[in-house]
Amino acid sequence: MLKKILKIMGCLIALFLLFVAFIWGSTKWSRYSKNREQVKYQREVCDTIKMVSEPIQIYISDFSKKELKEIHFYLQEGKFLKRDTVVSLDFKPDNTAQLINLPFKSFNITDQVIVKVAKRFFILSGIDYQAYYNYGMFGPVGPCQCGMTGFQTLNGKPAGSGWLIKAHGLLNDPLPPR
User: Fold this and answer.
1) What is the rounded distance in angstroms from the CA atom of residue 112 to the CA atom of residue 85?
2) pLDDT tens-place string over residues 118-141
3) pLDDT, tens digit, 9 for 90 and up, residues 62-107
4) CA angle 41, 43, 44 (to 5 degrees)
5) 84 vs 66: CA distance, rounded Å
6) How far apart are CA 157 and CA 42, in angstroms?
7) Do the domain assignments include residue 73?
8) Is 11 domain-assigned?
9) Residue 172 in this model has a pLDDT that exceeds 70
10) What is the mean pLDDT of residues 161-178?
11) Has residue 82 been placed in a domain?
12) Could you say which of 30, 92, 116, 137 has the lowest number of CB atoms within 10 Å?
């Protein structure tokens, strides 16, 4: 009788361990296959995007209300200015940083955006797209998507937060001759 109980307990433990191994293996395989799919999607879809057509928000910090009355935006393609525009900002004194949308509807990812705020210049460049998944409680939910990473360089240096802070602005004019 004791042998039968031990035999049944051994079978139940073995089945439980097989079940746990199956769950662990399927989770590992799912992560591995989603990672491979993400790499493939990055290479085949995200790396082929050449135009930015979604709105981009920029934070501007440490400027006074008077300095933010006119913000100049220039779109530079290669050595030539492609477009320029002037935007007025609705100053919100309760915010430490002011939020403004980039006024260009679409532009090439290799173009540079030059922002002039109160005799300070900011050169923004290096936009790219990255593949990602939306994650739920049990892993990726839905298909792979491309998301814009924002500007990677600010005045020729890694952008960090991407905020346009007055102290980091260039004083000399980087605009090409018109």
Assistant:
1) 14
2) 889 999 998 889 999 888 787 778
3) 888 888 889 999 999 888 888 899 988 878 777 778 888 899 999 9
4) 65
5) 21
6) 25
7) yes
8) no
9) yes
10) 82
11) yes
12) 137
